[in-house]
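Quick start: read one record
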Amino acid sequence: MGDRVVPAKLGLACGALLLPLPAFAMEGGLSAGTSLALLLSLLVLLLAWLALASHRRREREQRAHQREQDERAQQWRLSLWASNEVFWQYDLRSRELEVTRVAPEGDHRLAMQASIERNPRFHDADRRGVLRQLRAYLRGEVPVFLSEHRMRGEDGEWQWMRVRGRAVGHGPDGRVSRIAGTARNIDSLREMENQRQVAAEVMRSMAESVAVLDADFRFVAVNPAFSRMTGYSEAEVLGRDTSLLDGDRHEPAFYQDARRAIHAQDGWSGEMWQRRKDGSDFLCAMQCSPLREPTTQRQLFVLVASDITERRRIEHELRYLANYDPLTNLPNRTLLAERLSRAIVQARRQGNRLALLFLDLDNFKDVNDSLGHATGDRVLRAAAQRLQEVAGAERTVARISGDEFAVVLEGLAHPSEADHCAQRIITAFDTPLRLDDRYEFTISPSIGISLFPDHAQVPTDLLKHADTAMYKAKGTGKRAFLRYADAMDGDIRRRANLIGALRRAIERGELSLVYQPELVLTEGRFGAVEALLRWDSPEYGSVAPDEFIPLAEESGTIVQIGEWVLREACSTLAAWHRAGVDNRLKVSVNVSALQLLRSGLVRAVEAALHDSGLAASALELELTESVLMGNAEVASERLHAFRRLGVSIAVDDFGTGYSSLAYLHRLPINTLKIDKAFIDGLATPDDHEDATITATIIAMARTLGLQVVAEGVETAGQLAFLEQSACDIAQGYWISRPLAQDACLDFLLRAQARAGVRLDPGTTPA
């Protein structure tokens, strides 16, 4: 029954014994006093037994309570250890801080022991913050004392601790006297938080759009770049399906296939058209990666996207520019070579011929120079359209460069088919190219033809041979076509070699000047000499100016040669003046378009005059009509600079270009030189047209105050007509051939002597 029942039973037994005592005492002869004493003894004995039993019970209860307390303390220690927390208490009166740490005893984790550390050290940088939080709690501003600060750990290293506590004791005055609570090491939590903040900042500052999607492709989070790219704010897309951005550039199945691929693969990337909030479409480069949310383990996807619309547009334009001519929209040289290669492979496989036609527009430079590059570009576009129409849309027509074009003819059974096509092209260009209501141009092509496999096996050789044939066709009188022949290579090699030799002609002293006098008809004296360039090459002999001057202009050496001519001509005339030649005599020097366009021409003229000591009024610069008209703005600027220097200007070959006297009158021009083609017509009595044109030019020029020089005078009849028409100056073989420097000086001095002109040696022009 247990220990608690025993005293009750024992009392009952004692009572049973006591009840008959008086009778027994009476019967046994005991006295009343003796019986009472015996009764008292028994009662004392009973009470002692009862006290002993009560004491034992209390001991058992205390032991049970202690075991319960020990178990609770052990559970508390175990909880602190498992939560990685420590217990602390702080006495505000003594300002003592106790920190209790718990740890398993040995290897037995259920047996926990506590260690107490008094007044652990705070980090100096955190002490003020801890005191501020403590005062806030004591003043009742916050319900719980809470602080995050660094404390020195058991290993001696600083540890970040998150501390919580409440008041556990109060003094007589009611003030808090003791605070206790727990503290936890949050080094790893702070590291994770830092990493999270860094990741959030990286995501926020990324130029690429970043979106976090759930497994059903609904938006969970987006960064600012997403909003900038799509026009949607974060609040507008959270929880919504990504189909919000789908456009109509892809079929709906495309987007579904992309979703299935994202689910099926560890990583997915691709390009996709999307639609912004404003309805505009943009092309995205996307990279999608799966991840699991750390806390819930739910499936998420991180989608990184970049707007590559502009990049794709630029790439497309670059590809186009790499293969097409932007002016005419025809294939360029690169694409021509590619298509020509494929055509050769096809012709070789099928056993056919193919032809390459190389075209150059005759005299196109005159259009460009006289009317400007804008008009020239319009002519090129019209010519390209005409050429494509004649060749046919199925054939490759390419613009190689400038005014050069090419046509590829495939599947030829006989070489004559290429000839027929070339003739059709030439005939088609007989019809003027109409630009608008104001302009129409008749321009002819020269065409060279090369054949596969007759002339070449590779595209580069076909182009080279067709180019060679074209130059040969142009040399026959233009508006013609020729097939390539091996003999043509000699002419091309000579041309290339001449350009190379011309570059060294100045330093080798191979260039020289001859001078052709110009006669002032009304005075019978020579008013000027024109300096004409000659080239005597050791390898090629005397090279005609019509051959080497275009090469000099093409190669750019004309600038260096032109400066040499200026210096040489000025020095020669200055020396003649000193030798006694009439100081009114001028020297006329030709200037090319390339020289005029270079900004250094004015400085070159100044230097030539300064170095030679020749007066500026003794120098005349000749520019062709096409040069002036084709570069009107630059020409006007340069001509006014020459006028300020005192140099006079003459327009050479007048009448062959597109200018007008009214326009030329606005330029600082002194002289017009009528082209030899009109003077040649004066030799024929029935050629009234050239006579009328020449007389008209002379009359109009005189009205505008311009001198007129007639070039190419070769007969007495021509001279007589010019004198009758009041022409100012005549130049040509009838008067004098071009003469070498010494011969010309002698000629001039003898002419002066015959005319009775006397000048002191050393006289220079005013």
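The radius of gyration is 57 Å.
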